[in-house]
Write a structure and sequence with these properties.
The structure is a single chain. By secondary structure, the protein is α+β, with helices and mostly antiparallel strands. About 45% of the residues lie in helices and about 15% in strands. The protein is built from 45 helices and 34 strands. The strands form 6 sheets. It has a 9-stranded mixed β-sheet with strand order 15-34-33-32-16-28-31-30-29, sandwiched between helices. Strands 18-17-27-26-25-24-23-22-21 form a 9-stranded antiparallel β-sheet. The two termini are about 75 Å apart.
């Protein structure tokens, strides 16, 4: 038999099963990225989405959109829209052309490698070293790169300017030491963190680059070399459990069937094995390294690019043997005839090279012994390195908030500076002239005759004096706090630890911690996210008749096999199989030809309708015979049309099936248990055992899955020579490929089966088969092999040929697979909805399955009344139909609002945004026409915003991202309304800080959605780790989203908001004490304290308490309260850090407290007595200590959760000032530094009774003002958490836990589903709550507790 000629052995799962995008990570496209208008003032989600569109699609889509707008023919419009969608969904690698420089490395010329070990291997062009460096710094570049990164931030540039100016004694009221020391300290902390992270990268790089691999020499011997010595064109031997050091083409495998197995965990996170094969040598022997090193190959490969799923290459194999090798056994034609070639050209054969022959760097060889590979790409050109780009840089809400507030504070500082500089000029020219001793009329340093020069010098002076308005310690503290919240609290939270795998949650971007507390929308994938991705076969339909009991769990009865298992699954199938097995000749005949004959295959049914009620028990019955044949057609299709490989079971049981699709694993495992077994796979075919009859099929072609075709197909030759095509895919695609003359009754019954299975929440795939003529297949295969070897639009040509052969299919049957919900999903969704978060389901499954799962997880309450936004694909004008459906749904929503509220409104945008009652479902086909139209997009967004549950089905990866962008644009436009100018900008700014979009998914097809949302959460599931690798946070189960948002999100926002307000409060208080003093020194810029003391105040004395506060404080003692009462997840402006609340508590309060800490000491200092403290530096010490006590009492007052550690450091931060005042002057004297601001001052101040009295008065005044304000808030405007805290304290005094005393039966069940159990000792309390109340003493008060 001739060698099989196929394009590969690896396929993707059907669209039904949530297909992963084949685009490189982060590159998404879709119809949501187009707009039909560029209006700036109206809501234009299309315009917003268009900005996200990849460049390579721009010209294609622009042309299609232009033609779409100009067309008036509905049929032509439909065709153009289909063309537009096809263009948008194409995610192939950009075409490579010579001289094209637009895409960097991807636009280089083709790489050509002349592999000839005996004559010398050469490579056209230059190639990089295989050394890989992932570290950012080295000893030489660290300082310049690090300083550039730090000072590229406005805040650090501000502090650098301040530190530099402070050394200019002419203008600086402080010495340069303090400001410089503070800046150096902050940079040192950030530098240590950067070095610590980079050292780990250096260690990983060193280990990887020093790894050993094995180079094959021309004589076949092996030499060990390091990875850095590997070059393009080398032939490397890689052994089991070794990583591939570079991207290579497989030349030879040690396994007898010439395949190898790899694990791609480092590449995409998937743990299942994948099959790879050597290039097809067309009969040349290369069973050993020595033989392979005698090959001569010219390999043409595409330029380096990021695509992990596609590879375009061509291998020209040179050998005189081709002129003597027949094309097929008994054929007169040779493999190489020389026709059409230049005279004297050496015999050669061109074979395609695809990703199925590629071994990518970072993957591991498994269960294959060893392989020989030819290196194609090294170092930075390898696929894994080209995909090492960082995920989109997402900025947290508080980073945006700080950018504006720092700008406003600096503007405020500038106003104060100008005021003080001008006031100094006025004072000098009025009252200053009377102070002759100041010599203000003399031209000396600091005094200038020119008022303009004097004004500028004064501005610099006051700029330095008031530079403490911006807290330098905030930025270091913020980084530490976010790091601790993410990598300690989130990563080590036992409530988010998977009970099965033991994996914890992972924080991958701690900069977004606060955004977890402000999520408004959740866009969730279904398969593997809401469901467990544990597929099991539940039912089948063969020729329109359903078989199997969906309540029967086949996997739970491993003791049942073959006919016994088939009997329990469905007696009718068992009888048909038994009848066929009883006749060995009949079984052998059916198996040897790959299924039933063309006549039987085309029959519409296996049973007459009247016989469906009971099993057919007579082996000789004609109906049973037909079912027997159709039964073999069905299971043969499942066993052949798959991409699984077999791996030995460590327990020694049956081999394990592994593959990229859990659906395929479930189907083939169920087939094996029922007596139809996939036994083994080789490079030429595969072996099956059908009811005990072993048979080998030769695989001729494998048509990999593509989103355009929506299915995969395998063309195989049966033992009797019959060639059959076996097709499996989504019903939406495969049903269109069915033979036109198929019985309408069969089509109707199949549609009923699909609908029934989907209503039961089962995932379905449709199977079809076609018998091909030998001659027809030979002609088609010649064109297929030519297309497979083409570099020009290879994928498009292969898809077209796939469509050509996937026609005239005979409908075989339908599979129904169950993917059960994860534990706690209904309770989690109910909790999130109660918290005021809108939850959407976006899936690639069909509408019925998606809606059924939505009902199961309580996202949809009434499936019978759900609004179905589904446009019939046969519509001549789908866009008009979509518009009509939208109008109908909006009208229905208005009527529902009128009934529920008693108020009638004209348009939906007049309905309150918080009102949500209807439920809606929309499919991907309809989205194709909505998302490219501005008017339709705005209608959809407005309608969806008023729905309590939204289900999106049949969606592509680009549509998932498009839906997220659509709602983001809608919400942004909703809050801006008709505002213009600065008011519009500020409304958009506030929106960016509040309602956040969160996406959650587990597969590569969710990556675009995760990266588009404000927060992306990846599920560490069974579809690899692509989603996890591109997420901001990763969890193992959907229910862990509840503690992630309600607990960690709430706490992170609460803590960081108060950290920001307090940090500015303490610094502004300090700066205003210095500002107030200027009114009493002629605005001279004189400081009350020295620069060292000022720096110590900011970086040491006041930084530790707020750091501990931001790490330890919590509004309620028991964090489970947040989950018990989801409404505590409050995103209202009342509980949000806004510009107004910041300037009220962070600035205005600081101004008042600074006044107390300055004016009381200033007007209270004693002018007589033994210890006179009337000098400026004594006043400075007094104000400094009063100020320190005030700011420490403030952080103590706002703390809700006191710990011993927090109390100790609050006390130390205050009381350590006294040893500092006594010891620091001694240190200065020891260093021969005489500072009049310190030496001798502290002794005099500390000995004065006035000092201690004034300190007490100042602290009591500021604390009293704040205590009165807090008391009023707790008494008259309490927050929910304040009420909870009071109940907790009351229960604590009684020696009880309040939360566990107040759990209703419903809440207890919900909490239990979320993994929160009530201890057994509380069961009596729970029962007591639901038993008749016992009589109480007269006058006894019943505590009023909020309902659970």
């Amino acid at each position: 038999m001739p060698k099989p000629r196929n394009d590969g052995l690896t396929v993707a799962i059907p669209e039904d099963a949530e297909v992963a995008s084949e685009a490189p990570s982060g590159e998404t496209s879709g119809p949501a990225e187009l707009s039909s208008s560029s209006s700036r003032n109206k809501f234009s989600p299309g315009a917003v989405l268009n900005k996200m569109m990849p460049r390579q699609l721009t010209r294609v889509t622009s042309s299609a959109v232009a033609r779409l707008r100009s067309s008036v023919d509905p049929r032509k419009q439909a065709a153009l829209r289909a063309e537009l969608q096809s263009n948008l969904e194409r995610t192939d690698t950009p075409k490579v052309t010579k001289g094209d420089s637009r895409n960097g490395a991807a636009a280089q010329q083709l790489r050509v490698i002349h592999f000839d070990p005996q004559g010398g291997t050469t490579v056209d062009g230059k190639t990089p070293s295989n050394r890989v460096v992932t570290s950012k710094y080295n000893p030489i570049t660290f300082l310049p790169i690090f300083l550039f990164e730090m000072f590229s931030r406005v805040a650090y540039l501000y502090f650098l300017l301040q530190a530099c100016l402070s050394w200019w004694s002419v203008v600086s009221p402080f010495g340069g030491v303090g400001a410089t020391a503070a800046l150096v300290f902050v940079l040192l902390v950030a530098g240590i963190k950067a070095v610590w992270e980079d050292v780990k990268r250096h260690q990983e790089d060193k280990t990887m680059n020093a790894s050993t691999t094995h180079r094959a020499n021309p004589d076949g011997s092996i030499t060990d070399i390091s990875w850095t010595e590997v070059k393009v064109g080398d032939a490397l031997v890689v052994r089991d459990d070794e990583l591939f050091p570079a991207d290579m083409v497989c030349l030879q495998s040690q396994l007898p069937d010439r395949v190898c197995f790899i694990r791609t965990t480092n590449l995409d996170g998937e743990t299942n094995l994948k099959i790879r094969k050597p290039i097809d040598l067309k009969g040349i022997q290369a069973s050993s390294v020595q033989e392979a090193m005698r090959l001569r190959i010219r390999l043409s490969a595409e330029a380096p690019n990021r695509n992990l799923h596609r590879f375009k290459g061509q291998a020209t194999i040179l050998s005189e043997q081709f002129a003597r090798t027949p094309l097929s056994p008994g054929s007169d034609k040779m493999v190489w005839s020389g026709n059409g070639t230049a005279a004297g050209e050496e015999p050669h054969v061109n074979v395609p090279v695809t990703m199925n022959e590629m071994l990518l760097r970072g993957c591991m060889l498994k269960n294959s012994g060893s392989i020989l590979g030819l290196v194609v790409y090294t170092g930075r050109e390898s696929r894994i390195q080209m995909n090492a780009a960082r995920t989109p840089n997402k900025v947290g809400s508080f980073d945006r908030f700080l950018n504006l507030q720092i700008g406003l504070v600096i503007a405020f500082q500038l106003v104060l500076v100008i005021f003080c500089a001008a006031a100094n000029l006025v004072w000098q020219n009025t009252m200053g002239v009377d102070r002759y001793y100041l010599a203000l009329n003399q031209d000396v340093q600091g005094i200038y005759s020119s008022d303009f020069v004097q004004f500028l010098i004064n501005c610099l002076t006051f700029w330095i004096l008031l530079s403490y308005l911006v807290p330098i310690s905030l930025f270091v503290t913020l980084e530490i706090v976010k790091f601790w919240q993410g990598f300690v609290y989130i990563n080590l939270d036992p409530a988010m630890k998977d009970p099965a795998s033991g994996e914890h949650a992972r924080c991958r971007n701690s900069g977004l911690n606060e955004d977890l507390g402000r999520v408004e929308y959740i866009f969730s994938d279904k398969t593997g996210t809401l469901t467990s991705n544990e597929m099991q076969l539940r039912a089948v339909a063969i020729k329109g008749v359903a078989y199997g009991d969906t309540s029967f769990r086949l996997e739970e009865h491993e003791e049942l096999t073959d006919l016994a298992a088939l009997q329990r699954f469905d007696p009718r199938l068992a009888d048909a199989a038994a009848g066929l097995a009883a006749s060995s000749n009949a079984l052998q005949r059916v198996v040897s030809r790959g299924g039933s004959s063309s006549r039987v295959l085309s029959q519409a049914s296996s049973f007459k309708r009247e016989s469906e009620e009971g099993p057919q028990r007579s082996p000789g019955d004609a109906g049973v015979g037909t079912l027997s044949s159709h039964l073999m057609d069905f299971w043969t299709n499942l066993c052949i049309c798959q991409s699984l490989i077999l791996e030995d079971d460590p327990k020694g049981d049956k081999p394990l099936y592994q593959g990229p699709s859990p659906d395929e694993v479930a189907l083939v495992e169920a087939a094996r248990q029922l007596g139809f077994e996939f036994v083994s796979r080789s490079q030429t075919g595969l072996v099956l055992s059908m009811l005990g009859e072993e048979v080998e099929y030769e695989v001729l072609n494998i048509l990999e899955y593509s989103s355009d075709r929506g299915c995969m197909s395998v063309i195989a030759r049966a033992p009797d020579g019959t060639i059959r095509l076996f097709c499996k895919g989504s019903d939406a695609k495969v049903m269109r490929k069915v033979r036109p003359g198929t019985d309408p009754v069969l089509l109707r019954q199949t549609d009923e089966n699909l609908h029934t299975f989907a209503r039961q929440g089962l995932r379905t795939l449709v199977l079809g088969t076609r018998i091909l003529e030998e001659q027809w297949h030979a002609a088609w295969d010649a064109r297929y092999q030519e297309a497979a070897s083409s570099f020009e639009d290879r994928d498009g040509k292969l898809d077209a040929l796939g469509d050509e052969v996937e026609r005239e299919l005979e409908l075989v049957g339908v599979t129904a697979i169950e993917d059960k919900l994860q534990d706690g999903v209904p309770a989690a969704i109910k909790t999130l909805l109660t918290a005021g978060i809108r939850v959407w389901m976006i899936t690639g499954d069909k509408m019925e399955t998606a809606v059924n799962i939505a009902v199961s997880c309580q996202l949809v309450k009434d499936p019978d009344s759900i609004m179905m936004l589904v446009v019939d694909e046969k519509q001549d004008d789908p866009a008009t139909e979509a518009d009509r459906l939208l109008d109908s749904c909006m009208k229905r929503t208005l009527e529902t609002y009128a009934r529920s509220s008693g108020e009638r409104v004209a348009t939906l945008d007049q309905v309150p945004h918080s009102w949500q009652a209807e439920e809606m479902a929309v499919d991907g086909h309809t989205l194709n026409y909505i998302l490219v139209d501005e008017a339709l997009s705005s209608k959809l967004a407005l309608l969806a915003a008023h729905c309590s549950g939204v289900v999106v089905s049949r969606s592509s990866p680009s549509q998932k991202a498009g839906v997220v962008r659509l709602m983001t644009a809608y919400e942004m436009e909703r809050v801006t309304g008709t505002r213009r100018g600065l008011r519009r900008w500020y409304a958009r700014y506030k929106r960016r800080l509040s309602g956040k979009m969160l996406s959650i998914g587990d597969g590569a097809n969710d990556v675009a959605m995760l990266q588009t949302a404000d927060v992306g959460v990846g599920i560490m599931g069974k579809e690899g780790r692509q989603a996890t690798n591109n997420s901001d946070y990763a969890i193992t189960q959907f229910r862990f989203l509840v503690p992630l948002l309600l607990v960690h999100g709430n706490l992170s926002y609460y803590r960081i908001a108060r950290l920001i307000k307090y940090s500015f409060y303490k610094n502004i208080t300090f700066a205003f004490v210095l500002f107030y003093y200027q009114f009493y020194n002629g605005f001279s810029g004189q400081a009350l304290v020295d620069s060292i003391t000022a720096a110590v105040f900011n970086v040491v004395f006041t930084s530790v308490p707020i750091l501990l506060f931001a790490v330890l404080d919590r509004p309620v003692a028991d964090l489970k309260t947040y989950i018990h009462y989801p409404r505590l997840y409050d995103k209202s402006e009342l509980h949000t850090l806004t510009t107004a609340s910041f300037w009220k508590t962070g600035v205005a309060q600081a101004v008042v407290h600074a006044a107390v800490c300055f004016f009381i000491p200033y007007y209270s200092i004693a002018t007589s007595g033994r210890h006179n403290i009337t000098d400026v530096y004594s006043l400075g010490k007094l104000a400094f200590v009063a100020l320190l006590g005030t700011v420490n009492l403030e952080v103590a007052l706002v703390a809700r959760y006191w710990t011993v550690l927090f109390a100790v450091f609050v006390a130390l931060s205050y009381f350590l000032v006294y040893p500092y005042m006594a010891i620091f002057p001694l240190i200065q004297l020891g260093l021969n530094i005489y500072d009049p601001a310190n030496v001798g001052v502290s002794e005099n101040v500390l000995a004065s009774p006035t000092f201690w009295f004034v300190i007490i008065i100042c602290n009591l005044t500021t604390f009293g003002l704040r205590f009165a304000e807090r008391t009023a808030d707790w008494s008259f405007k309490p927050q929910d958490t304040m009420i909870m805290a009071e109940h907790e304290e009351e229960a604590r005094k009684q020696g009880k836990k309040w939360l566990q005393q107040n759990v209703s039966a419903e809440s207890r069940l919900r909490l239990s589903s979320l993994g929160i159990e009530i201890p057994e000792e509380e069961e009596d309390t729970l029962r007591a709550r639901h038993s008749p109340p016992r009589p109480t003493a007269p006058g006894a008060a019943q505590p009023g507790l909020p309902p659970a």
